[in-house]
Queue: 2 jobs
Job 1
Amino acid sequence: MLIENPILRGFNPDPSIIRVGKDYYLATSTFEWFPGVQIHHSRDLINWTLVARPLNRSDQLDLKGVPDSCGVWAPCLSYDKGTFYLVYSNVKSFDGVWKDTPNFLVTTNDITSEWSEPVFLNSMGFDGSLYHDENGRKWYTSMLVDHRGGKFFGGIILQEYDPDKKSLTGEVFHIFNGTELGRTEGPHLYKKDGFYYLIAAEGGTEYGHAITVARATDITGPYVTHPENPLLTSRDHPGEELQKCGHGDLFQTENGDWMVVFLTGRPLSTRGRCTLGRETALEQIHWPANEWPALKTAKRTPRISFSMEGEGAAQYQTEFYDDFDKEEPDVRFQSLRIPVTESWLSLKKRKSYLRLYGRESLSSLHHQSLIARRVQDFRVRVKTKLDFQPESFQQMAGLVFYYNTSHFHYLHITFNGTDRVLSVITCDKGRFTEPLEEPFLLPGVGEVGLGGTFLHDRIRFMFNTEDTEWRQIGPPLDGSILSDDYVRDEENIYRPAFTGSFIGLCCQDLSGKNLHADFDWFSYEENVR
């Protein structure tokens, strides 16, 4: 069968994987998007289905007010004796020398059902991971935040977890300082042939990213680094299609073969901007007894595709249509920072319509009325039909191409004081512009179709009314501003910018009257021309 990378396209970073019998489960980061953590399932390592977002209650995940690209970082999924474990960070702040990074653990016996209330672990760092030793002991490991002298990355720490007391216990061991690549994070532990193996993400999550390996005969160390580190990277190969390769997790297939899932990005140009965000890819590992692991290709750069034993063929769904006739939003939609409730989103108030009650602006970190899905292809077309009757310039509803609160392109219906109009707002590094020379005058009543294409680095909006065909509105817009690479402040490389581009339906009422907007349907197409 043929594996084609990335296996999870569009904003699915920091992969953590387990196999339970014939079933593979893969968890990825979600940052400020709610519910938290995406878990995909597969039996062939080719086709993956989103089966759970386990952090779906406010008591598990409070994201209200967290800055852009904070929230849920680097979840670690593990399994032991019938119980699934999920460790995650909920990063509260990341500016300045101090970082607020509380870490939690939730469990379940059914990965697609409800998960437990969270157990607080510590706030010493992020990228926490839980290892279940064969002797029954459980160990928590993470990177250490060290603010002294501008250091930031303080190496990897280890502490035992007591499942009866539901807390970390005993001495904190500092087990790994990292290699010369620096920025050591994303640790995972494994045991093989009498050695404890530690893999880490190093070099930063941009174009210097890599996976490195160390090992020890005792879990608390000392750890010796792999003589041929890094295990996997594209840092010295700017022409490779898969870039930013790092932050991975090793696992064994049912027949005992070793593989690695890892974070990657696909830039629009050589080391350019990655509008699809950071994605998840897969490679084979060669790991003879008592020897160090290596990529099966005998190189350190991963392949865009490769063949392996087994049966299966990719069956990508490139079209999606939602007529909003169900009781809950489709699983591909997420909200920003808060759970969906009937108070701001309803699929019941008007049959076969999605109703959004206008609340705070697209700049808000608290109560936005927005649901969105990932952009997962370089050539996308989206459309929707909207019924909205604003009575004030402070009331808006429409279609948004979104990265974060400071970067988006927004096609919306609003009111200019006398008429209903169609307008466009671009927010670029927090600066607002209006690309239209003047808003387009709409009929006083009636539904309006809104749409857009996202072709590589260009976004074009379109619209129609009940008596007109679809036509473009406004100039081409720069879609590449919806990328980590553009958003990140180069003078402060650790400023969070870790997500990806989304397409959303939203409604704002800055007057506080909660005027609603009704969306009739939503369509999404990939590979468009």
Job 2
Amino acid sequence: MQNNKPQYKQNSKKNNQPRNKNFNTYNKPKPVQPLPKLPLIYADGMTVGDIAEVTKRSTADIIKSLMMLGIMANQTQSLDRDTAELLAGELKIEFKVDESKDFTNFEKIEYIDDPKDLVSRPPVVTIMGHVDHGKTTLLDTIRNSRVVLSEAGGITQAIGAYSVERNGKKITFIDTPGHAAFTEMRARGAKITDIVVLVVAADDGVMPQTKEAIDHAKASNCPIIVAINKIDKNNANPDRAKTELSELGLLPEEWGGTVPFVGISALKGTNVPLLLDTIQLVAEVEEYKANPSRDATGYVIESKLDKSKGPTATLLVKAGTLHVSDVVVVGNVWGKVRTMTNDLGKQVRQAFPSDAVSITGLSEVPQAGDQFLVFKDERQARSISETRTQRAKQESQAKTNVVSLDQLFKQSAEGEVPELNLMLKTDTSGSAEAMKGSLEKIDVNGAKLNVIRASVGPVTETDVLLAQASRAVIIAFNVIALANVKDFAKSKGVDIRSYNIIYKLLEDIEAAMKGMLAPVYEDKVCGQAEVRETFKVTKLGTIAGSYVTDGFVRRNCIVEVIREGIVIYTGKLSSLRRFKDDVKEVKQGFDCGIMVQNFNDIKVGDIMQFSITEEVKDEE
């Protein structure tokens, strides 16, 4: 029987060979690609993933390097600056900080917009003036609503922002309180405004709060329009109001000045359209523009904690466009815009430059006057908010917005322009004018004096608030500041100086202005000593047993070590002793032990010459 099973040949040596002669080449290790050496350019709020992208490395490499430093992190975790710098050292790459993106101080970032992106924006107008002169009634007439009826006592008690349309163009109005108790809120209103409308009653004329409003308006460097209200009253005297205002530096255009004056009746609506036309004319001359395409920025007008909505804030958009769901940092708090409502209470999806909207979604209630900025990344916004909060806690004790006579030289040493702002409070108007004229005659080269206000009466809390906003010192001449006002000024860091002799006041102010200038110092030789013995002490250095041959030696002296007539070292003393006691001074004829800071090559016979640094006084 025939065997049909296939016959298998035994594998020959040839068949044991691999088919591909280059088989072994597949098992060779691939060459290791060198890691990139791109620098780590750090910006606040960067995550592990961001750093991996910047350095062109894998996220796994970054996480592994962090683990080598004992830091556990994931891809979405933000790293602070110190950790990022340590990471750069571990990766052996250069570490840089992107100064242009230091968003922790976003108020100081200067945006340079392309002129092609700038478009006209509505002017932001602030209504200011004395209480009961008709500010809110004027706004009520402009926007055809009765806001004044819903306000306690007819006095505006919170800053409100309202938008109106005139001839197809919008105007944003900010109604600041006129009562003296709300001077600080009025100061915030002037800071964020483009144009100030000063309301003066024709039957009352210039009042104390009118003068304060003028001071704030001038401090804001904004164009001023005067609205003389209540011209329909029988006892109205618009010319008297014009005369009083011209004496305060607001000269009407019809009298050859530059300030537009409009006589109106807010209650009857007389000449209100003319006032709006004047506002738009000033706005056209000033050409207010903004870029609506970039990230929105602006200021907080008012904020509160709503029981149902949580933290709410009224924001005034200065540039860019604010959208619902935008991530914002407002002052030291952050959040995601959940809702936006306009001044009519209607919900809107976006706010353009010069729009005022109330938003919800913030983590906490911000402070009125805080600046806000929109961010793309929620993690970055949270990180910046935490950094700013921590910084605010550290600086809570520092009074950076006030000044005293004792602080002026310190500011000058830090490179600031020496400038002294004064507020005068006197017993009579004659004294105020005389003191103002005498003070303005003080001439100290390199220093500047400004009398921002001179008025009659005791120092009040309103004066303190204005001095705080203007970085001014209050001079009280023959008037008092009550204990509660002094305590209030102390809490605000405002300096109040009281005088009853005018020449003493002038001497102190002149001395203060001279103190603002950088003093001239010179080294004056005060003593000499001879080294008669040296002692070397482990871990301390060389002690020179010396005898004071002339003058005296003090611990704060500058010492020159002289050997054979040549100065071989100049430095400071690190120790001065008599026997075992540390002393401040040793006079001529006494022995002492001297150690020179960072210098131990002292030999017997060396001469030590001591000098002290003294300020050169100006000779009158």
